[in-house]
Amino acid sequence: AFYTGYVGSVKQLEYISDIMDELRKPDSIIIVDPVMGDKGKLYPGFEPSFAKEMAKLCKKADVIVPNLTEAAFMLDEEYIESGHTKEYIERILKKLMDLGCKNALLTGVNLEPGKLGIAAYNGETNEITRVTGEEAMFDFMNQTVRPNKKEYMIFFMEILDKILSEVPVFKMKCNISLEAVETSYNAMKRS
Hints:
The protein is of the alpha/beta class. The protein has seven helices and nine strands. The longest helix has 17 residues, at 150-166.
């Protein structure tokens, strides 16, 4: 996995981009937080041209996490401080996706007075594939609270092995829509 946060210069962006190209594996995840500004202004030392270079790095990301200021500078969009409309946020998210990233989380969203939040856009296509228990083991282990005691862990592993050897397991990539639900239902029904 790669995670970038504050990057101080265009040259550093180039180095990071080269490292990602050289070391990225098919299952690597790249998260880019383009830290460079807030409240409608770039941080001292940054120019609008830096935002354009940061946008190029975002193209390589699986997930980008800009705030509204950073998104506005990368996209040449108007920055609106508060009272955002759904249409404004959706336009920003779609333009962020047009940079080439797979998913975007936009922070600093203010759709209701006095409330800040995050808006997300998942650009993955809806697909579902059946996987073997062995292939599913890593995901199960990473998403399960495991017991601390050795005897409980052995019991847990035996149960998990039984489940993964007898129950069909599917891996799904989706964009959280009705189409995603239908895709998963139809694939599992056929199995």
